[in-house]
């Protein structure tokens, strides 16, 4: 399970690093109806700015927009499901920056104190008999909800060995700050899960200047329902969707074919973006879904049955890779080390790095446990796999001995500077040249180290943190005595000893 997880981290890191951003341009307009400003963006993009400028000139000549279509819809949004371990770890990472391992430790501590239920669960549902106790539990945590309670998280068929993580109603005195944080997350989710659905009215209109089409979206809240619990506007995914919408208290009465005056128009420049580096939250999702990009909820639930590891082991897989110096945390992201990238280059096309195959094993083991497959058949497949992978790895043995890139030492002149997880140093006997990779809270990339060794300076490093806790930007430069110093824009900083 470690190798396919490493492969996912490396693959995403390389895609992100090598991505070439391409600029494009869109038209942005504002019209007005019934005192409401309608802000819309062109549905198509322009590959060059000159074409966008020509389209903008024609748009301003028209000075009006025609409504070509209007759609209104009232919808209900169910509350999020109760937490299982993985979803709790993801949410704690997103909201509070907790590592998966830290969240598991805290959840285990709360369980041992009998404050929350068993944490190492893969189910986000409760059974009917537990649902009968929900009104009592709500009373114990001091919350009253309208009846009937929402049954979105109640399903006997989706409860595994243990149901979702919920509060027990026991007193919570003496909890640490971190324990209180996780406990409050569990309680808030518990209240949300049994609150009414939210209700919204959404509206979408298409407008045109005769050449370009513009899309306008807006939303009006009818009833907050579960979203009122934390005064939120939805989950992270919903917030992403709603960024394109205007939130209004009243929706205007738009009519097809009516003409609206153009209040303003402009060109907006955009750039294509790579897939973001993994955070622990998104890495846990990738492990849960065996590395597949899964959009719909049903597919996610199906893939969760054959993900990498289990809810109880995924945190340990990540921590083990960090401990063995294959991956590391860089601010909020998870990236490979040079050692991890070297291993990935060797195994990336091999079955040992195939996340979906590892996930299929989990599914097969579950089938054996349910009596749906003879264990002998799985054992035969594993034996065949072991033979194949051993042959592949033995064939790669000479490559494993390949050394990491080395650079000319600025102090002794030998090709003997190696870059490691926490330090770059000269391996030549008698030379003590070295550079620590973490400086003022910022981790120096291999490119930063290479620039410093070969040219004597790095590009501007952003987000450095002083001893007083203040953020600043500066270059790192190598002095004649081979120690590092900061160089600010327009002046040089003091040399810093290593």
TrEMBL record:
Domain of life: Bacteria
InterPro entries: Topo_IA, Topo_IA_cen, Topo_IA_cen_sub1, Topo_IA_cen_sub2, Topo_IA_cen_sub3, Topo_IA_core_domain, Topo_IA_DNA-bd_dom, Toprim_C_rpt
CDD domains from the UniProt entry: TOP1Ac
Record-annotated Topo IA-type catalytic domain positions: 1-390
GO biological process: DNA recombination; DNA repair; DNA topological change
Pfam families: Topoisom_bac (PF01131), Toprim_Crpt (PF13342)
PANTHER family, per database record: DNA TOPOISOMERASE 3-ALPHA (PTHR11390:SF21), PROKARYOTIC DNA TOPOISOMERASE (PTHR11390)
Protein name (record): DNA topoisomerase I
